Amino acid sequence: MPELVERFIRNHKLDDREEYKKLLEQLEEPETAEYLRTEAVRLREQYYGKKIYIRGLIEFTNYCRNSCYYCGINRENQKAVRYRLSAEEILACCENGWRLGFRTFVLQGGEDPWFTDKRLVQLVHSVKEAYPECALTLSVGERSIDSFYRLRKAGADRYLLRHETADEVHYGNLHPACMSLPIRKQCLRNLKSLGFQTGAGFMVGSPGQTYWELAEDLVFLKDLQPEMVGIGPFIPHHDTRFCEEPAGSVELTLKLLSVVRILLPTVLLPATTALGTLSADGRERGLMAGANVVMPNISPKNNRKQYSLYDNKLCENEEAGEGFEALKRRVETIGYYLSMERGDALV
Ligand code: SAM
Predict the structure, then answer these.
(1) What is the CA(274)–ligand 1 centre distance, in A?
(2) Short-list 55, 37, 52, CA closest to 329
């Protein structure tokens, strides 16, 4: 194997961006990619055995004040049918998830100004009061450090905020000028400093992305040391400016899952819905590349299609709470099993 690959496996890091770029180039060799995948699986099993953690995903609002160019629920999209779940509806989703045995709920939404600190804090209190044994993850975008502090104090345990790309120029090509990469990175550091189990992440194959941009994502992740990393392929949405762009590569996404498992061996790493959307066995292949988390959708069925980030997003069958038994079987066919624990980050 190339010296660089051996060194990456040994040290869980490389020296600089240039080296990460070379690593990605070397992974074009199938034997090298397989070697790395095997090491990723070994590490994942060393820390997590055959367990797959499960999170119930509740997409509770698709209102958003941002206009990320890739995202189907960006505020410019007049065709998006907007919805916002009430606290009662959200709690009913949790109840459904609880009955299925889920012990983590993820509340995800656009950056919806209706959810002021007061309302979100109230919501966090209600969920934690009703389900004290469960972990609560929020994924509601950028907020002030004071706001993060209030949410943490209210009982939220984890926070997902993908950085999307760590390269300044690339970030500028995916977002309007009013959105800022330094602010996004600062939010992630603030979340970590407040004791949230923090999730960063990026899309693979977003327009304009090359190995050079991905290399910077790896440098950033190593430096941030997030407890969770979300990686999924970019998929175009028909009502966005990127509608004609090609989707990201499943193969490259799988390689990056293995790279990130080696970079951050104890990381909580989901096999994402986007991966399952692009390839029928994408989720299983994600788990076999080093991922150890799945996030079935437990939002109300009526609203799932409206949370349309990209075209053909999976929200039924094994991707949904009601397909739990089928998911269980599919996971078992690859030698893993669904764990009903909270599945916190290892310390
Ligand atoms: N508003 C929150 C935030 O900014 O973190 C959470 C919701 S946001 C819609 C969740 C994630 O969806 C984003 O971080 C982005 O990576 C992903 N996403 C959006 N559009 C996508 C697309 N076209 N293809 C793949 N993933 C996409």
Answers:
(1) 10
(2) 52
Q: Measuring CA to CA, how many Å separate 103 from each of 55, 251, 318? A: 7, 31, 18
57 contacts: CB under 8 Å, gap ≥ 6: 106, 108, 295, 296, 297, 298, 299
pLDDT tens-place string over residues 235-258: 999 999 999 999 999 999 999 999
Confidence of residue 334 (pLDDT cuts 50, 70, 90): very high
**Distance from residue 167's CA to the centre of ligand 1 (Å):** 17
pTM: 0.97
Task: Tell me the C-alpha distance between 250 and 208, whole Å.
Answer: 17
Q: Which atom of ligand 1 is nearest to the CA of 203?
A: 16
Nearest alpha carbon to residue 331 among 297, 292, 298, 299? 292
62: closest CA among 43, 41, 42, 77?
A: 77
- pLDDT for the residue 17: 98
Q: How far apart are the first and last CA of the chain?
A: 32
Q: Please give the torsion angle defined by the CA atoms of residues 39, 267, 175 and 110, in that order, rounded to the nearest 10 degrees.
A: 140
Confidence of residue 313 (pLDDT cuts 50, 70, 90): confident
The contacts of residue 165 (CB under 8 Å, 6+ apart) are 171, 174, 181, 202, 203, 206, 209, 213, 216, 217
Q: Is the CB of 142 under 6 A from ligand 1?
A: no
pLDDT per residue over 153-211, tens digit each? 999 999 999 999 999 999 999 999 999 999 999 999 999 999 999 999 999 999 999 99
Q: How many angstroms is it from 335 CA to the middle of ligand 1?
A: 30
**Paired strand residues for 137:** 106, 158
Please work out whether the CB of residue 199 comes within 6 Å of at least one atom of ligand 1.
Answer: no
